[in-house]
Propionyl-CoA carboxylase
Amino acid sequence: TVKGGTYYPLTVKKHLRAQTIAEQNNLPCIYLVDSGGANLPRQDDVFPDREHFGRIVF
């Protein structure tokens, strides 16, 4: 796609929602990540969310 696998603000919200649902149901949340990183022109919108998102990627 044009996005090239980069993260957008909506991507972050989807991940956080999945984590919240997993936590509420005592389920593991496992990510296999192959990403183009944050969309650079929008990176200021990507990271300043709940938990600053970047902490989930190790």
